Amino acid sequence: MYHILVVDDEEMIRRLIAKYAVYEGHEITEASDGMQAIDLCRTGKFDLMIIDIMMPELDGFSACREIRKFSDIPIIMLSARGEEYDKINGFELGIDDYVVKPFSPKELMLRVNAVMKRAAAKAQEAPAPVSSEPEHEIVELGGGGLRADLTARIVYVDGKRADMTPKEYDLFFYMLKNKNIALTREKLITEVWGYDYFGDDRTLDTHIKLLRKSLGKYADFVVTLRGVGYRFDAEK
What we know:
alpha/beta; Arc Repressor Mutant, subunit A; Rossmann fold; 8 helices; 236 residues; 2 domains
Protein backbone atom coordinates (compact mmCIF):
# COMPACT_ATOMS: atom_id res chain seq x y z
CA MET A 1 0.00 0.00 0.00
CA TYR A 2 2.01 3.02 1.28
CA HIS A 3 5.53 3.50 2.59
CA ILE A 4 5.13 5.60 5.73
CA LEU A 5 7.85 7.38 7.69
CA VAL A 6 6.93 7.49 11.39
CA VAL A 7 8.87 10.10 13.40
CA ASP A 8 8.51 10.17 17.20
CA ASP A 9 11.01 10.07 20.05
CA GLU A 10 8.77 7.65 21.96
CA GLU A 11 9.44 4.11 20.81
CA MET A 12 6.09 2.94 22.21
CA ILE A 13 4.23 5.41 19.97
CA ARG A 14 6.23 4.37 16.92
CA ARG A 15 5.57 0.69 17.61
CA LEU A 16 1.86 1.30 18.12
CA ILE A 17 1.53 3.14 14.82
CA ALA A 18 3.68 0.55 13.05
CA LYS A 19 1.55 -2.31 14.39
CA TYR A 20 -1.67 -0.93 12.94
CA ALA A 21 -0.04 0.35 9.75
CA VAL A 22 1.56 -3.02 8.96
CA TYR A 23 -1.78 -4.70 9.66
CA GLU A 24 -3.29 -2.40 7.00
CA GLY A 25 -0.59 -3.52 4.58
CA HIS A 26 1.69 -0.50 4.78
CA GLU A 27 5.49 -0.47 4.96
CA ILE A 28 7.01 1.45 7.88
CA THR A 29 10.32 3.21 8.42
CA GLU A 30 10.98 4.74 11.85
CA ALA A 31 12.92 7.80 13.00
CA SER A 32 13.37 9.07 16.55
CA ASP A 33 14.03 12.76 15.91
CA GLY A 34 13.70 15.55 13.37
CA MET A 35 17.26 15.33 12.07
CA GLN A 36 16.80 11.67 11.22
CA ALA A 37 13.54 12.51 9.46
CA ILE A 38 15.23 15.10 7.24
CA ASP A 39 18.06 12.72 6.32
CA LEU A 40 15.64 9.91 5.51
CA CYS A 41 13.45 12.17 3.37
CA ARG A 42 16.50 13.33 1.43
CA THR A 43 17.72 9.81 0.70
CA GLY A 44 14.56 7.70 0.71
CA LYS A 45 11.20 7.53 -1.00
CA PHE A 46 8.11 7.77 1.21
CA ASP A 47 4.44 8.19 0.41
CA LEU A 48 3.55 9.91 3.69
CA MET A 49 5.13 11.06 6.95
CA ILE A 50 3.64 10.99 10.45
CA ILE A 51 5.68 13.26 12.71
CA ASP A 52 5.50 14.37 16.35
CA ILE A 53 6.12 17.99 17.35
CA MET A 54 8.08 17.68 20.60
CA MET A 55 11.31 15.77 19.92
CA PRO A 56 15.01 16.04 20.80
CA GLU A 57 17.65 17.23 18.34
CA LEU A 58 15.08 18.97 16.13
CA ASP A 59 11.36 19.49 16.75
CA GLY A 60 8.63 18.55 14.29
CA PHE A 61 7.94 22.12 13.18
CA SER A 62 11.58 22.75 12.28
CA ALA A 63 11.86 19.38 10.55
CA CYS A 64 8.75 20.02 8.46
CA ARG A 65 9.98 23.49 7.52
CA GLU A 66 13.24 22.00 6.24
CA ILE A 67 11.58 19.06 4.46
CA ARG A 68 9.15 21.37 2.68
CA LYS A 69 12.15 23.03 1.00
CA PHE A 70 12.74 19.93 -1.12
CA SER A 71 9.70 17.66 -0.77
CA ASP A 72 5.91 17.88 -1.00
CA ILE A 73 5.38 14.60 0.87
CA PRO A 74 1.97 14.48 2.61
CA ILE A 75 2.42 15.08 6.35
CA ILE A 76 0.28 14.22 9.36
CA MET A 77 1.48 15.97 12.52
CA LEU A 78 1.10 14.51 16.02
CA SER A 79 1.05 16.52 19.22
CA ALA A 80 0.26 16.03 22.89
CA ARG A 81 -1.07 19.60 22.81
CA GLY A 82 -4.21 20.70 21.03
CA GLU A 83 -3.59 24.44 21.14
CA GLU A 84 -4.82 26.35 18.13
CA TYR A 85 -1.41 28.03 17.80
CA ASP A 86 0.23 24.66 17.14
CA LYS A 87 -2.38 23.77 14.52
CA ILE A 88 -2.01 27.11 12.77
CA ASN A 89 1.78 26.83 12.81
CA GLY A 90 1.56 23.35 11.33
CA PHE A 91 -0.86 24.28 8.57
CA GLU A 92 1.23 27.33 7.71
CA LEU A 93 4.13 24.92 7.13
CA GLY A 94 1.96 22.95 4.70
CA ILE A 95 1.01 19.87 6.72
CA ASP A 96 -2.05 17.94 5.58
CA ASP A 97 -3.61 16.90 8.90
CA TYR A 98 -3.13 17.31 12.64
CA VAL A 99 -3.83 14.65 15.28
CA VAL A 100 -3.81 15.24 19.04
CA LYS A 101 -2.43 12.63 21.45
CA PRO A 102 -3.76 10.37 22.80
CA PHE A 103 -5.23 9.16 19.53
CA SER A 104 -6.98 6.11 18.16
CA PRO A 105 -4.63 4.12 15.88
CA LYS A 106 -7.63 3.09 13.79
CA GLU A 107 -8.63 6.73 13.35
CA LEU A 108 -5.05 7.60 12.42
CA MET A 109 -5.10 4.94 9.68
CA LEU A 110 -8.37 6.40 8.35
CA ARG A 111 -6.72 9.80 8.25
CA VAL A 112 -3.74 8.29 6.40
CA ASN A 113 -6.07 6.86 3.75
CA ALA A 114 -8.00 10.14 3.44
CA VAL A 115 -4.82 12.22 3.05
CA MET A 116 -3.41 9.82 0.45
CA LYS A 117 -6.66 9.82 -1.55
CA ARG A 118 -6.57 13.60 -1.71
CA ALA A 119 -2.90 13.56 -2.71
CA ALA A 120 -3.61 11.02 -5.48
CA ALA A 121 -6.57 13.02 -6.78
CA LYS A 122 -4.47 16.18 -6.89
CA ALA A 123 -1.66 14.40 -8.73
CA GLN A 124 -4.09 13.20 -11.40
CA GLU A 125 -5.30 16.71 -12.13
CA ALA A 126 -3.45 17.30 -15.40
CA PRO A 127 -3.40 20.86 -16.72
CA ALA A 128 -5.23 21.45 -19.99
CA PRO A 129 -2.85 21.38 -22.97
CA VAL A 130 -2.22 24.78 -24.50
CA SER A 131 -0.44 25.82 -27.66
CA SER A 132 0.17 29.36 -26.48
CA GLU A 133 0.13 31.44 -23.32
CA PRO A 134 -3.34 31.04 -21.77
CA GLU A 135 -5.51 34.05 -21.07
CA HIS A 136 -5.38 34.62 -17.34
CA GLU A 137 -8.60 34.92 -15.36
CA ILE A 138 -8.12 37.92 -13.10
CA VAL A 139 -10.43 39.07 -10.30
CA GLU A 140 -9.92 42.45 -8.66
CA LEU A 141 -11.69 43.65 -5.53
CA GLY A 142 -11.28 46.41 -2.99
CA GLY A 143 -10.67 49.02 -5.65
CA GLY A 144 -7.99 46.80 -7.20
CA GLY A 145 -6.09 46.36 -3.96
CA LEU A 146 -6.98 42.68 -3.78
CA ARG A 147 -6.03 40.99 -7.04
CA ALA A 148 -6.35 37.25 -7.71
CA ASP A 149 -4.95 35.49 -10.76
CA LEU A 150 -7.05 32.32 -10.81
CA THR A 151 -5.11 30.84 -13.72
CA ALA A 152 -1.68 31.21 -12.10
CA ARG A 153 -2.97 30.74 -8.53
CA ILE A 154 -1.39 33.99 -7.38
CA VAL A 155 -2.90 36.55 -5.01
CA TYR A 156 -1.70 40.13 -4.57
CA VAL A 157 -2.60 42.32 -1.60
CA ASP A 158 -1.89 46.00 -2.34
CA GLY A 159 0.67 44.99 -4.94
CA LYS A 160 2.49 42.50 -2.72
CA ARG A 161 2.22 38.80 -3.44
CA ALA A 162 0.47 36.93 -0.62
CA ASP A 163 2.29 33.89 0.74
CA MET A 164 -0.46 31.30 1.14
CA THR A 165 -0.36 27.57 1.78
CA PRO A 166 -1.82 25.29 -0.95
CA LYS A 167 -4.96 24.71 1.12
CA GLU A 168 -5.38 28.45 1.70
CA TYR A 169 -5.33 28.93 -2.08
CA ASP A 170 -7.91 26.15 -2.52
CA LEU A 171 -10.20 27.69 0.09
CA PHE A 172 -9.78 31.25 -1.16
CA PHE A 173 -10.35 30.47 -4.84
CA TYR A 174 -13.39 28.32 -4.08
CA MET A 175 -14.94 31.10 -2.00
CA LEU A 176 -14.00 33.68 -4.62
CA LYS A 177 -15.66 31.68 -7.39
CA ASN A 178 -18.75 31.47 -5.19
CA LYS A 179 -18.65 35.07 -3.97
CA ASN A 180 -21.74 36.55 -2.33
CA ILE A 181 -23.10 33.03 -1.71
CA ALA A 182 -23.64 31.61 1.78
CA LEU A 183 -21.44 28.52 2.03
CA THR A 184 -22.14 26.03 4.79
CA ARG A 185 -19.30 24.51 6.75
CA GLU A 186 -20.19 21.10 5.33
CA LYS A 187 -20.10 22.45 1.77
CA LEU A 188 -16.69 24.07 2.24
CA ILE A 189 -15.18 20.98 3.85
CA THR A 190 -16.59 18.73 1.11
CA GLU A 191 -15.44 20.92 -1.77
CA VAL A 192 -12.04 21.95 -0.40
CA TRP A 193 -10.95 18.92 1.64
CA GLY A 194 -12.93 16.23 -0.16
CA TYR A 195 -16.08 14.27 0.55
CA ASP A 196 -14.11 11.62 2.43
CA TYR A 197 -12.40 14.10 4.78
CA PHE A 198 -11.96 12.46 8.15
CA GLY A 199 -11.03 14.96 10.78
CA ASP A 200 -11.99 17.81 13.05
CA ASP A 201 -14.11 20.42 11.27
CA ARG A 202 -12.31 23.06 13.36
CA THR A 203 -9.60 22.67 10.72
CA LEU A 204 -11.84 24.84 8.53
CA ASP A 205 -11.91 27.59 11.17
CA THR A 206 -8.12 27.43 11.48
CA HIS A 207 -7.69 27.87 7.72
CA ILE A 208 -10.20 30.73 7.67
CA LYS A 209 -8.01 32.48 10.27
CA LEU A 210 -4.92 31.83 8.15
CA LEU A 211 -6.71 33.14 5.05
CA ARG A 212 -7.83 36.31 6.81
CA LYS A 213 -4.28 36.87 8.01
CA SER A 214 -3.00 36.51 4.44
CA LEU A 215 -5.62 38.95 3.12
CA GLY A 216 -4.51 41.67 5.54
CA LYS A 217 -6.80 44.68 5.53
CA TYR A 218 -9.18 42.80 3.23
CA ALA A 219 -9.77 40.09 5.85
CA ASP A 220 -13.33 41.27 6.45
CA PHE A 221 -14.23 40.15 2.91
CA VAL A 222 -14.52 36.71 4.54
CA VAL A 223 -17.74 36.99 6.52
CA THR A 224 -18.74 34.58 9.29
CA LEU A 225 -22.36 33.42 9.12
CA ARG A 226 -23.18 32.23 12.61
CA GLY A 227 -24.66 28.76 12.67
CA VAL A 228 -24.17 28.39 8.92
CA GLY A 229 -20.64 28.88 7.65
CA TYR A 230 -18.96 31.66 5.68
CA ARG A 231 -19.47 33.98 2.73
CA PHE A 232 -16.97 35.85 0.58
CA ASP A 233 -18.51 39.31 0.41
CA ALA A 234 -17.38 40.89 -2.86
CA GLU A 235 -19.46 44.01 -2.22
CA LYS A 236 -17.21 45.27 0.60
